[in-house]
Description:
Elements: E1 2-5, H1 20-33, H2 41-58, H3 60-75, H4 84-101, H5 107-130, E2 142-143, E3 146-147, H6 149-167, E4 171-173, H7 178-194, H8 202-213, E5 217-221, E6 225-230, H9 231-251, H10 271-289, H11 297-310
Antiparallel strand pairs: 1-6, 2-3, 4-5, 5-6
Amino acid sequence: MSFQPNxxxxxxxxxxxxxxxERAIDRAAVRILAEKPASGARAFFLECAVFxxxxxxxxxxxxxxxxxxxAARLWYPDDALLARNDALTIAAVLIQLGMLLFxxxxxxxxxxxxxxxxTGTVMELFKTDVGSWAYEAEGFLRIGAVPLFSGxxxxxxxxxxxxxxxxHNLRFERYPRIWLTTVVAFAIYLNFFSHHFVYDIRWxxxxxxxxxxxxxxxxxxxxxxxLRVPLLLVxxxxxxxxxxAENIATWAGAWLYPHQMDGxxxxxxxxxxxxxxLMILSVVMVTxxxxxxxxxxxxxxxxxxxxxxxx
Length: 311
């Protein structure tokens, strides 16, 4: 990991992809932070605080979903006329509508989030049918054994991916060709189904992931500082974070794995591999909307536009 000081605020090039509300928050943050020290311990802790706040903002959809799931476990009455799964589905729809109404998601992001929703729901239908996990058999807002709120959990992952891309102004060194990553993503998705019938190639897929991305570095901007980290390390970190969230969700009874039917137990660490593979699929879908850019892409673009204007 390396640090690259950056004198620009986030309110210029990197803010172009912000939603209107995010631009307003960004301008207010710049006014507050402008007089803060640029070096020393206070500057370090300031960067840490900004990083955590940006991550929290990127996780907004998923965090709200998780809070609703926990609240339903703790306080939703067992004898309510509306089944808990149906209440979760209605809450998920309201969260999504709120994200759109308050312009917390850009228009083109909605398409990739809906794609997450669709691909996730299709996989849920198959996985519940073969007994990989199960939901409570209650409610009307479901397809087969799959309550409709389940698709929103995949959409929450998609929401995080697209939001973190623009909040941190992500840039990449030596990113692999999109067509190669797309082939691997399709193979990952197919293996989620096919390994129940034929050989499980997840280890081959993991080797392909390492081969494709081991030279790739990600640059992500906090405030004054831009960090440079190996992308594979980021993949592993996000997979761990999702696994932890999954443990909370299963404890709250959103769904259960076979070994949890007689009482909650921690989700197997082996699921980390599944989440890593699913996250690669997510990353690839985001690149269809936000093609990876190299560091300094805006500066090069701006110089080209200036030259064109001078001519």
